[in-house]
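Lab notebook page, bench 4
Experiment: in silico fold of construct C2
Operator: M.H.
Input chain length: 373 residues
Purpose: comparison with the prior construct
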Amino acid sequence: MIKNQFYKIIVLVFVISIFFSCADKKSNKKLDNNKSVKNEIPVETNKVSDVTELILKNRTQKQLIGDVINAEIIFKNKTHKIDSIEWFLDNKKISTLVKKPYSFNFATNKLSVGFHSIKTISFISDKSKDTKELKLFFVSDVVPKKITYKILNTFTHDSKAYTQGFVYDNGYFFEGTGQYGESTLRKVNAETGDLVESLNLPSDVFGEGIVLFNNQIFQLTWQSLICYVYDRESFKLLHKFNYQTEGWGITTDSENLIMSDGTSTIYYLEPEFFTKLKQFQVCDNNTAISNINELEYVNGFIYANVWQTNNIIKIDPTNGKVVAVINCKKLVPKEYIGSQDNVLNGIAYNSVKNTFYVTGKRWPVIYEIELDL
């Protein structure tokens, strides 16, 4: 009797286990089915069809500002038609076409140099749409003028100063120097070369360009992404700003700060919070000019050292065009001819005399020059 009951219990447990096992498998199968069905539900309700091609009839390897760009949409679908096409230049809609020919001429004479985009959105009769975009790079249509100069005077420069930023004001040179463990901010008597004020930057910071603005001194750093702001007279640190690029050169147009980062791009910054207002690229009539370094803003133009060259370029900030070049090869000290380190870097302007002061990294001399403009 006991033995029979024992067998009955064993059978009952076995049946129950089979029941729940089947239930679990059925439940799992249901979950898998739901997953499969979910994946089959279409999620793209506004299908973008690949039925057009955007072509440029007169595209060249080197596109010049001033060229007229003739763009055209080729419609590859024979079963439908285009209802309309919206044309965009730099994401700004400039025209809508509703009939053939699906072409448009873009005037470029008012564009800045650098990258620009042409985009079309074609609306198809089957309620789909097709977007196409092409990016073009424009160089300047201006051949830079070669500016000559006359040396008016020379001044003593600290041959240990690795010049990164250079400003003249009322008889004094303000200078920012670089190199880890050697970076400084300094004020020097222009006539005597005597050091009036000096501040050492932290040893893990590589100092870069400086600018005077509203009784303050702004000093960039290379890769620390910090701009230090000091009191102009005491060199007391007032506050710091952070930025997203490398810091190279900085100047001002008396309203905004203007900054370079070692590329071909120049940035305009709002001085109260160091917020970027705009940016533009710099090109001559052949290519983009990279390695833009120390800056000086004079009479509506930006003068810039091009790192590891003997050139100072004159830039029109309204369009990014290089309008002139000053070759300073004959100013390079004999011991630094051919050097890739102790190069030309430092432009300061004397607004009273309308002259420029030019020096370089560890150069023993500062030149006062008059440009033949």
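Observations: The first strand starts at residue 52 and ends at 56. The longest helix spans residues 2-40.
Next step: discuss at group meeting.
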